[in-house]
Design brief:
This protein is an alpha/beta fold and about 240 residues long. It has one domain: ComB-like (putative 2-phosphosulfolactate phosphatase, Alpha-Beta Complex). It is about 40% helix and about 20% strand. The strands form three sheets. The chain has a five-stranded parallel β-sheet with strand order 7-2-8-1-9, sandwiched between helices. Strands 3-6-4-5 form a four-stranded mixed β-sheet, with helices on both faces. A hairpin with a 2-residue loop joins β10 and β11. α5 crosses α6, α6 crosses α7 and α9 crosses α10. The longest helix is centred in the last third of the chain and has 18 residues. It is globular. The chain starts with a strand and ends with a strand.
Length: about 240
């Protein structure tokens, strides 16, 4: 198995995704929120690229959710904080979600054979699902404001470590993947501090959302593996 890591959504190209399993990573916060929503009982999460598209796709009973530049979109029921997606709010409801980077990355991955949503919260379960699909893997880090996000790279390194544990010596990585694997090994004992020190973490702290960072830094607290089926992420 070969694993490639793409540093930002803008670096994603069709040829790098075809016939592979894509794992989209947006730790702060889109993929962490998607995992939380589905684990809380949402019947599906529809990722869309624009606010207008979200409003157009919303049906009676749906929840519109999303953010722009870390702030909740005006008129939407929910933002992009995992704490908002409780069972009381989302159970048996469809969520239409648009975010600055994460949902764009999911759309960029549509040429892959399989598309999974990964984060620190479901890293081992996501790695196991990817290993069982027996395809080469692309880890697509969504990034932040079109730049590499430290927290996504950390998660990529963790997922690589877990895939290696499942597949043994039959795993090769590209250079960036090797670097992210090393980064995770260095930072694994201070995950919360690492996320809080990154650009996105600092931005969320300024907005009063530091507890979101701490929530998203929880490793393997979930077994949920969102998989794109048609236009909707559902539990595999």
């Amino acid at each position: 198995m070969h694993i490639e890591v793409i540093s930002t959504v803008n670096e994603a190209r069709e040829g790098r995704l075809a016939q592979r399993t894509a794992i989209v990573i947006d730790v702060l916060r889109a993929t962490s929120t998607i995992v939380t929503a589905l684990e809380a009982g949402a019947c599906g999460v529809v990722p869309v690229e624009t606010v207008l598209e979200a409003r157009a796709l919303g049906r009676s009973g749906d929840l519109l959710a999303g953010e722009r530049f870390c702030r909740k979109i005006a008129g939407f029921e929910l933002g992009n904080s995992p704490y908002e997606f409780t069972p009381e709010v989302v159970r048996n409801r469809r969520v239409v979600l648009t975010t600055t980077n994460g949902t764009r990355a999911l759309h960029k991955s549509l040429r892959a054979d399989h598309v999974l949503a990964g984060c620190l919260m479901n890293a081992t379960a996501c790695a196991k699902a990817a290993a069982e699909l027996r395809r080469d893997v692309v880890l697509l880090c969504a990034g932040s404001h079109d730049e590499f996000a430290l927290e996504d790279g950390l998660c990529a390194g963790l997922i690589i470590s877990k895939i290696k544990s499942f597949c043994g010596q039959n795993v090769e990585t590209d250079d960036f993947g090797t670097a992210m694997h090393g980064f995770y090994q260095h930072a694994q004992h201070n995950v919360v501090g690492t996320l809080l020190s990154g650009t996105t973490g600092k931005r969320l702290i300024k907005l009063g959302c530091s507890r979101d960072v701490e929530r998203c830094a929880q490793i393997d607290c979930s077994q949920a593996v969102p998989r794109l089926q048609g236009d909707t992420l559902q539990l595999s």
